[in-house]
Amino acid sequence: MNSNVSVASRYTTLAEDLAHEVEIKRSRFITYLYRVDSESAAREKIAALRKTHFDARHHCSAFVLGADRMVQRSSDDGEPSGTAGIPMLEALTKRATGHGTDLSDIVAVCVRYFGGIKLGAGGLVRAYSDSVSQALDAATLLTRQRMLLLQVVASHTEAPRYENELRASGYHVGATEWLAEHAVLEVAVDDVPGAEADFAQYLATLSSGTAQATKSGHEWVDLR
Predict the structure, then answer these.
(1) Backbone dihedral region of 25: left (phi > 0), alpha (psi from -120 to 50 degrees) or beta?
(2) N- to C-terminal Cα distance for the chain?
(3) What residues have CB less than 8 Å from 198, skipping those under 6 apart?
(4) How many angstroms separate the CA atoms of 109 and 49, rounded?
(5) How far apart (Å, rounded) are the C-alpha atoms in residues 41 and 174?
(6) Phi and psi for 213 in degrees, rounded to 5?
(7) d(C-alpha 50, C-alpha 44), whole Å
(8) How far apart are CA 181 and CA 159, in angstroms?
(9) pTM of the model
(10) Which residues, in sequence order, are CB contacts of 142 under 8 Å at separation 6+?
């Protein structure tokens, strides 16, 4: 399968939400990472943590959204301007993954309980940046890939063989629909130039030229 994809058709995101805490000069920095798919969802997470940690002095945040990462927001929430939200955002946007720096659909919220010792502007920048970076170190990430959905019609007797061979060859096979006359297999291939033609050639060999694939749409798929 063709793996030469653009940023717009593939990016990295969280597999699971998590919380990570560090203590810096008696201040507690609790960083929460959530996977979100919209700005409203990100702000709901921030608002919920304000209620959970109502006694904390600051609830700083940053989030990145979309395959192209066009939506990027941050908040210092009362910390000196530029010492919390932006460092947190940069920790997200500059995070190296297996595909470069493509982390997205993620919100980071850093809850700070002040410990009585001032950190200074430089200390705050490092504290908030490091808190998010350490949380990402502990996080499990996955690739989210835009896929082209194809349908393959097969006889009831051939469908199980097709499904097994497709899976063994690395294709993503969805649910098989069993109709009275035949079965319909749903197969997802990378949504990149050449992938559909490559699959058609593979299918022709698999079925001795008797099966064809038709497009049925697109879907974002989590690849673990």
Answers:
(1) left
(2) 16
(3) 1, 2, 189
(4) 8
(5) 28
(6) -110, 140
(7) 10
(8) 12
(9) 0.81
(10) 12, 13, 14, 15, 222, 223, 224
Residue with the two structure tokens 């002095």: 57
| Residues near 10 by beta carbon (within 8 Å), at least 6 away in sequence | 67, 99, 102, 143, 144, 145, 146
Helix (H) or strand (E) holding 189: strand 183-190
Rounded CA-CA distance 221/202 in Å is: 22
115-174 pLDDT per residue, tens? 889 999 999 999 999 999 999 999 999 999 999 999 999 999 999 999 999 999 999 898
Question: Which residue from 197, 215, 213 is spatially nearest to 147, judged by alpha carbons?
Answer: 215
The pLDDT score that the predictor gives to residue 1 is 41
Bridge partner list, 18: 33
Residue among 123, 128, 104 at smallest CA distance from 30: 128
Instruction: Check residues 9 and 109 and name the one with the higher pLDDT.
Output: 109
Q: Which residue has the tokens 């597999």?
A: 15
Two tokens at 221?
Answer: 């798929």
User: CA dihedral in degrees (200, 201, 207, 210; nearest 10)?
Assistant: 60
Output the average pLDDT for the chain: 93
Q: Can you read off the two tokens belonging to residue 14?
A: 């969280």
SS (H, E, C) 5-73: CCHHHEEEEECCCEEEEEEECCEEEEEEEEECCCHHHHHHHHHHHHHHCCCCCEEEEEEEECCCCCEEE
The token duo for 140 is 């499990």
